[in-house]
Amino acid sequence: MKKLIIALAATAALLGGITGGAQAQDKTKICFIYVGSKTDGGWTQAHDIGRQALQEHFGDKIETPFLENVPEGPDAERAIERMARSGCAMVFTTSFGFMDATVKVAQKFPDVKFEHATGFKAAENLATYNSRFYEGRYIQGQIAAKMSKKGVAGYIASFPIPEVVMGINAFLLGAQSVNPDFELKVVWANTWFDPGKEADAAKALIDQGVDILTQHTDTTAPMQVAAERGILAFGQASDMIAAGPNTQLTAIVDTWGAYYIKRVQALLDGNWKSEQIWDGLKDGILTMAPYTNMPDDVKAMAEETEAKIKSGELHPFTGPVNKQDGTQWLAEGEKADDGALLGMNFYVEGVDDKLPQ
Amino acid sequence: MRIELQRRSQSSRLFSFVSPLLALVLTLFFGGIMFWMLGKQPLDALYSFFVEPLLEVWSLHELAVKAAPLILIGVGLSICYRSNNWNIGAEGQFTIGAITGSILPVLYPEWHSPMILPLMLVMGMVGGALYAGIPALLKTRFNTNEILTSLMLVYIAQLYLDWLVRGPWRDPQGYNFPQTKSFVPEAVLPEILESGRAHLAIAFALVAAVALWFMMRFMLKGFEVTVLGQSERAGRFAGFSARRMVWFSMMLSGALAGLAGISEVSGSIGHVQPTISPGYGFTAIIVAFLGRLNPLGIIASGFVLALTYLGGEAAQLSIGISDKVSRVFQGLLLFFVLSCDTLIHYRIRIVTQKLRGGAAHHA
């Protein structure tokens, strides 16, 4: 016992000796809150790459602390409040489920600016930002229809919120533009981030006979399963080529960095305004990973579609489009407006699934 | 050569009092080493982990919010464990309590009445108690092992909650997100002070702890718990029933876990969602043992464990270490508590091969 006490005392003295003082802080604090791990290979990693780009751009002028693996629930509110209190000038909350928590904390701290990704509730000091992921999904659908031998793709979905339903519909519309009989099977993983569940969903879909896989969840687990089982797949949020060098056709890559830089610049210049931003391929908030593992003609088609979407010549949700029950949604040539897209809670014709509601 | 644990003829009274503190010191010490290996200043890191959350009023509120369910569940479990009933399923009773307590605000969202909150709390307690009654019934009727049954019932409760909020209880206006309607203001557990988020749950926890301490110290029931826990046979001579004690202790701890569940949902979350607990029911087991199964000790240990949750966040923000560190601290703490306790009752003896051979020869 005596020895133990001596050892403890000695170490405490040693630790005391090497402890330095805290540095003075005059940098602007730009804070981030993540739902998953910053190395998830998908959604959160894409935000973290954006954060690093931001840090690099402004260098010593700012610091960018973050909290990862924050669950969507009561802990989120405390975590966001902690950030606001720790002197953050601006807080980016990067998951849909942080919406109500962000709104509550934003009310308490009118001087702090908040930006919530993919939500729909804004305030004087709370902006929202989102990306038109569906544009990339449409391109993926076209590629899937060309590449699939069986004409069936599998879709690993997270939560049946409009954002996700919109992606499913865009994918199928893209596929149908190539092959009108194309089918789509959907499995709801009911999580954003759970490698185990995502892999199980991938296996279930492959066992049901799909030969192309796409996902709206955050990790590379489905890509790995697709690689093991020898089918093709699309990456999500980050370029997942490392997880499937012979598997990934392309990926929707979220490139938040430019957006983050733009908003922080506005903050530093003193002209930040609460806005509801919904940018797409043409703004560079969304890019397509290199088209790989496909013949040149398919690649050419994908590139052409990408160019048309960027130029505004093609809108993925252009009529005629029917709802799943066969009733008409968009008439010939009619384009869906943003409001309809953001509240989307129905499937288009051809989805082999019942929307959970 | 092998290592043996040999029972001490007498265990030190001083050290059975000091051991939780010693465990705490050892945890801090090895935690410091871990921070040092991660390339951080150990004292800075420990400071931001264990001290920073205590320096601001709002953060103390958050500490109370986290500690309340841990203490409520922990004191209930302490009665169970003292009576030699091993309820490992508090997490499940917490979940069921949250569900039964939420029936009124979820199914009758238009009902605005001051009566709703007391009813919710009672229903939560009843739900938790009944759910803990299942392993009690299985134990008294079929002599099943309550450790296994109560643990397995946790997963059933969690999956039931999951199904409920994705299906029948889902808010039709909630953009298909798996959560119920938000509770009406009358169904929300009120906050205690203006200055932060701490709500009535912490008051419930303190009242429950003091009441159970009083029971254990001054009432016949407390004596009954202790006697039956130490020797069932001796208890029988005193006219106590071990079977009735199974029911009493399980349902008491179930009711408190259920109260913690509905308090968390009503006071902290404001609606029901698939995940309502970061494992309070399991962490409360550490709380109960760290508090030496004494309800007053559990108040202190509840705050310590709550601090490890908050500290993880604070340390992540101020010095950028992973949130996994809080789990490591919880694990270290339990490890040292249990090993300190073991070494109070046992001494380590190193038995050499030669001795063993000699013993065999004699036999």
Tell me what you see in this structure.
The complex is a heterodimer of chains A (357) and B (363). Chain A is α/β, with parallel strands linked by helices and 357 residues long. Chain A has two domains: 28-132 and 256-283, Response regulator (Rossmann fold), CATH 3.40.50.2300; 133-253 and 287-352, 3-Layer(aba) Sandwich (Rossmann fold), CATH 3.40.50. Chain A is 40% helix and 20% strand. Chain A is built from eleven helices and 16 strands. Chain A has helices spanning 2-18, 43-58, 74-85, 99-108, 133-147, 162-178, 195-207, 221-229, 257-269, 296-311, 338-342, and strands spanning 28-33, 62-63, 66-67, 88-93, 113-117, 126-131, 152-157, 183-188, 212-215, 232-237, 248-254, 276-279, 286-288, 321-322, 328-330, 351-352. In chain A, the strands form three sheets. In chain A, strands 1, 2, 3, 4, 5, 6 and 12 form a seven-stranded parallel sheet that branches. A seven-stranded mixed sheet of chain A has the order 13-11-10-9-7-8-16, sandwiched between helices. Chain A has a two-stranded antiparallel ribbon with strand order 14-15. In chain A, helix 6 (162-178) links the parallel strand 7 and strand 8. The model of chain A is unreliable at 9-24 (pLDDT under 50). Chain B is mainly α and 363 residues long. Chain B has a domain at 64-300. Chain B contains 15 helices and two strands. Chain B has helices spanning 13-37, 42-51, 57-82, 90-101, 103-107, 116-142, 146-166, 201-218, 220-230, 232-237, 242-269, 280-290, 295-319, 324-345, 353-362; strands spanning 2-7, 346-351. A two-stranded antiparallel ribbon of chain B has the order 1-2. Chain B is globular. The chains are: A alpha/beta (357), B mainly alpha (363).
